[in-house]
Amino acid sequence: MNGLKNIEIYEKGNNYLMATYTRYPVVFTKARMQYLWDSGNRKYLDFIAGYGCLNVGHSNKSVVNALKKQIGKIMQPSNVFFNQPQVELARKLCEISGFGQKVFFANSGAESIEAAIKLARKYSVDKYGISRYEVITFNRSFHGRTLGALAATAQPVKQRMFEPLLEGFKYADLNNKDSVQEKICDKTCAIMLEPVQGEGGIYPADADFLKWLEGICRGRDILLILDEVQTGFGRTGKMFAFQNFDIIPDILVVAKSLGGGMPAGAMISTDRISKSFSPGIHGSTFGGNAASSSAGIAVIDYILKHDLPGRAKELGSYFMGKLERLKEKYPLVREVRGMGLMIAIELNKPLADEIVRSALKDGLVLNKVSDSTLRFLPPLVIKKSHIDILLRWLNNKIRELD
User: In 3D, which of 52, 389, 308 has the Cα closest to residue 196?
Assistant: First the structure.
């Protein structure tokens, strides 16, 4: 395969892989921090970071070295035994979350969401009986594509054709207290949301809404589940997005950047709630394997050492300010939304795909979450000069299309 060019690999991929993604005709063969290179050795500046999986950058040396060291020892002992990296990573997650006391490891965000749904239901069954099982989530949310996570994902376009969905989910409107109040009943066991809706188009929750939601949950012993699969590990200006809002969840779900490119996910909770999971209730064969856990340790250490949350806050403010200027200049730009380095611009026309494809030709890797919305999730190691390169390109492209 080493001698094959982009188009050859692209054609072979279409022959042998299921068409679960609309793939672009570029094949990346190496990466370093904020850069990617294709099979023709052309260099690209990345503003997707593997859908937010690479906050510490591509092939970060600290992560790579930790992996090399661990792989040479042991990668996958069974989960009927503890492994040292798994235990150490669990300790670090509890410490940086500020509330966590127990961790369950999985392989992805969707798998971790499934675990959170199960834990919430089991906790309520243990305490209140089998009739208390409903989970409230929010319109435009995205929690994953497995059947349980899909039922929690309040996007009909993603749910249709997979019905009947898992029962027990109700959908409210983000930042609408009345909408939530209408959905709460004696069957409600949990409320689950993303502090910033990612796949839905980068919609942050309001601070007062989250504080109100926390109070409602505490008052009725409803578990507050925060899905920080995309917002976690410095992306929004804090280690976790909930730390921007002075609230504490009952269950925190993380994944994506936890592994620094390795498959990793986790559910974090308290001793009181975690007691509902006993041997045989839930599990994951590869969850918390020694290789992914060693990568996770390196990720957290790097984030803390280099203050990536601080960088995300500073650079995100700069980036959004410049995008707001584009909005003032060009009617094509409808809205700018975001927090930290989790940003979207919504257009007044369905031109997002055209912009993504044009950017790729010019060595910029962008992402669209709808026909009219571009999402920016750069590695948190990116520099202001790299943002300026994108801004100049966007200015020219939007002026051309306006």
Answer: 52
Q: How many CA atoms lie within 13 A of 23 on its CB side?
A: 18
- Cβ 359 vs Cβ 353: under 8 Å: no
Q: How far is CA 126 from CA 120, 189, 319, in A?
A: 10, 11, 48
In this structure, the number of other CB atoms found within 10 A of the CB of residue 371 comes to 12
Dihedral (Cα; 259, 264, 269, 274), 10-degree rounding: -150
Rounded to the nearest integer, the mean pLDDT of the chain is 96
**Distance (Å) of CA 315 to CA 87, 265, 384:** 34, 27, 7
> Across residues 259-264, what is the average pLDDT?
97
Asked if 41 and 32 touch (Cβ cutoff 8 Å), the reply is no
* Cα 211 off chain centre by: 22
Closest Cα to residue 135, out of 187, 210, 206, 194? 187
- Does residue 3 carry a pLDDT above 50? no
pLDDT at 1: 37
Q: Where are the alpha helices (DSSP H) in 77-133?
A: 84-97, 109-128
What is the model's pLDDT at position 146? Answer: 96
What average pLDDT does the segment 129-138 reach? 97
Task: Give the pTM.
Answer: 0.96
Say what the pLDDT of residue 308 is. 98
Q: In what order do the strands lie in the sheet with 134-138?
A: 102-106, 265-269, 251-254, 223-227, 188-193, 134-138, 169-172
What span, in angstroms and rounded, lies between the C-alpha atoms of 128 and 120? 12
Contact indicator for 313, 321 with CB cutoff of 8 Å: no
Pick the CATH number of 62-305 from 3.30.420.40, 3.30.70.1400, 3.40.640.10, 3.50.50.60: 3.40.640.10
Break the chain into its structural domains and give their ranges: 1-30, 62-305
Give the model confidence (pLDDT) of 81-133 as tens digits.
999 999 999 999 999 999 999 999 999 999 999 999 999 999 999 999 999 99
